[in-house]
């Protein structure tokens, strides 16, 4: 079968990708104006703008109204979009990506415990303080759903940041945002069960204490247990729950416009 010729837009995307990853390029560097780029590559501004949209969606550039685009910092935006789209199309993907999240967070807990037990312990202190603050804020108002979601996300974000692996942090943040509605559903089901609303804060406290022992095996076991509860909760959901969540996502009924977080 003869290969299809690449479109002009695809070719321009490749050219600009090369500009963005050049050895002398750093995040925040300004790209030439769109008109100059269109002339350089011998394409129309329409083609150039389509290429820039593609690059922006991939997280390689940041476009600014009335100003030249800039090279974006490394980020997990493509991962976030991929996960969100996959979950919308296939309810099984929710379990699969939650399992991936579990594996990554377990590794993050191991790394955090290792750093806490070693010479890098001082660098972990701001993140430990942030995790404690999130626990306290959740315990202060455990019935407020927005507070529960915000503090739950903040706790897990702080804990993985303590691991000191920026790429791991970015990928997990992308997963968290993409699985936002699942976390909200988990919190709703937890509150509806009649369990102590402050129990989630206590669970996070136990998890943080395990990491603070500096024993990687202890930290791993605690995170494994914490997220296995989440997996069992998702598995127990009645058939159709995911479809209802997908409709909510597509209809845009999240009025505050904020990201909601995954089940924890």
Automatic annotation (TrEMBL):
InterPro entries: GntR_C, TF_FadR/GntR_C, Tscrpt_reg_HTH_GntR, WH-like_DNA-bd_sf, WH_DNA-bd_sf. Residues 6-74 form the HTH gntR-type domain. One of its GO terms (molecular function) is DNA binding. Keywords: DNA-binding, Transcription, Transcription regulation. Residues 231-264 are annotated as: Disordered. This is GntR family transcriptional regulator.
